[in-house]
Amino acid sequence: MTGDRNKIIWNSNYEKLLCYQKAVVIYDLTYHFCNRYIDKRDRTFDQMIQAARSGKQNIVEGHADMATSKESGIRLFNIARGSLLELLEDYKDYLRVHNMRQWEDYSEEAVMMAKLGIEHNDPKYFIKLTETRTDSIVANMTIVLIRQAISLTTKYLDRVCDNFSKEGGFREQMTAIRLKSRG
Question: 42, 67, 135, 146: which sits with the fewest CB atoms below 10 Å from its CB?
Answer without folding.
Answer: 42
